[in-house]
Amino acid sequence: MKTLTNFPYSKVLVLGLAKSGEAAAQLLYDSGIDFRINDQLPLDENETAKRFTELGCDVITGEHPLTVLDDIDLVVKNPGIPYDNPIIQEASERKIPVITEVELSYLLVDGPLIAITGSNGKTTTTTLIYELLQAGGLDPLIAGNIGSVASEVLRKQQRGQPVVMELSSFQLKGTKTFKPNYAILLNLTEAHLDYHHSMDDYIGSKLKLFQNQTDSDVAILNRLDSLISEQHIPGDGERFYFSVSNDSENDIIVTEDDQIQYRGNNLMSKHEVGLPGDHNLENILASIAIAKSFHIPDELIIEKLRTFTGVKHRLQFVDRINDRLFYNDSKATNIQATSKAVRSFKQPVVLIAGGLDRGGEFDELFDSFTNVTNCVVYGESKDKLYEAGKRKGFNHITITDSLMEATKKAYELSEPGDILLLSPACASWDQFPSFEARGDMFIETVHKLK
């Protein structure tokens, strides 16, 4: 496993453990670099901190005293720790650089790096690119918000081996030298303002993906996304545009007769694609751009696109019960993602929505309800969803307390031929530790219904 060499810092503070902090600490330890760990969880409840303590490392747990910054010249912070945290604020005052584990891991890169960001569709696109490169025999690795964290994966990267990496705004905000050979921005919508506090900061964090690209790199962009089109994309990467409309200015498009066309040549009909939803066509076009860049034969691309049906918790088909189709889209944690999910289906939809109330309103969501026959809401945001629906003239709303109850009620309200869709438009943290746990509960409840 690779380690860091010629590291320019004397002592590093790893602030916050979890997966990324643990991986960063392990990399520093294996590289023989002096570091300190600081984590909020007390030592008697913190198995990771115990392990590093037993290794003789400098570990402080249970609190975040400002003294953890003494004799530190670099902070590697957990992406989820906000920048208004007192330790981060103090580090800024002391002019100590603050990075995320992704930036630390970049020192290990030894081959093509493909990085994907966006407000929605990151995981689907990252997974599809990985599978396309795998089909082409390129032995890719996958990292970031999928599977193992970046520094674990990049330690295993062989010279010339492609790495496909999903990146969030939280991770990108803490980058300085990070530079992917291929950088994809799928879309931009209002998200994570509780962390970033402004759209400018959120978008600026996303755009850091491109800031260090040279003219030998490629920036892959969604031409039809209105927020992306308003931005000055930094860096010198070659611009490659995709569009789901027939626009000859773009490199890859969907034509008026529904052909996916790459630089003037038809590849396949969009109706042959196995992944449901027009919004997923954007993810597919971006993925094709990478596959073509790596010279994967068209027949392998077509075969993979016909058989790829998505990622768990992202418009995942769960089951058919009495001619009703159940889909798990638990990853849809904002209004835009749920609106796109609803529009993915031409059949009548019974929508299950709700979760953490982040203070927003939901009126916009109901504008996408052209084929929604009923909406069953639950969780902390249920009353806000109900009131928004009433304001928009949508009266087929049922309030429940839990996801299990909502799923059963949705089934009672459905008719043969309906789509029963969990697409919450909210984060999961009011009742679940993660969107994955929420989706698993939905799947379990569906199977019990059967």
UniProtKB/TrEMBL annotation:
<protein>
    <recommendedName>
        <fullName>UDP-N-acetylmuramoylalanine--D-glutamate ligase</fullName>
        <ecNumber>6.3.2.9</ecNumber>
    </recommendedName>
</protein>
<keyword id="KW-0067">ATP-binding</keyword>
<dbReference type="Pfam" id="PF08245">
    <property type="entry name" value="Mur_ligase_M"/>
</dbReference>
<keyword id="KW-0132">Cell division</keyword>
<dbReference type="InterPro" id="IPR013221">
    <property type="entry name" value="Mur_ligase_cen"/>
</dbReference>
<keyword id="KW-0436">Ligase</keyword>
<comment type="function">
    <text>Cell wall formation. Catalyzes the addition of glutamate to the nucleotide precursor UDP-N-acetylmuramoyl-L-alanine (UMA).</text>
</comment>
<comment type="pathway">
    <text>Cell wall biogenesis; peptidoglycan biosynthesis.</text>
</comment>
<dbReference type="GO" id="GO:0008764">
    <property type="term" value="F:UDP-N-acetylmuramoylalanine-D-glutamate ligase activity"/>
</dbReference>
<keyword id="KW-0547">Nucleotide-binding</keyword>
<dbReference type="Pfam" id="PF02875">
    <property type="entry name" value="Mur_ligase_C"/>
</dbReference>
<dbReference type="Pfam" id="PF21799">
    <property type="entry name" value="MurD-like_N"/>
</dbReference>
<keyword id="KW-0963">Cytoplasm</keyword>
<comment type="similarity">
    <text>Belongs to the MurCDEF family.</text>
</comment>
<keyword id="KW-0573">Peptidoglycan synthesis</keyword>
<feature type="domain" description="Mur ligase central">
    <location>
        <begin position="116"/>
        <end position="291"/>
    </location>
</feature>
<keyword id="KW-0131">Cell cycle</keyword>
<feature type="domain" description="Mur ligase C-terminal">
    <location>
        <begin position="313"/>
        <end position="426"/>
    </location>
</feature>
<keyword id="KW-0961">Cell wall biogenesis/degradation</keyword>
<dbReference type="InterPro" id="IPR005762">
    <property type="entry name" value="MurD"/>
</dbReference>
<dbReference type="InterPro" id="IPR004101">
    <property type="entry name" value="Mur_ligase_C"/>
</dbReference>
<feature type="binding site">
    <location>
        <begin position="118"/>
        <end position="124"/>
    </location>
    <ligand>
        <name>ATP</name>
    </ligand>
</feature>
<keyword id="KW-0133">Cell shape</keyword>
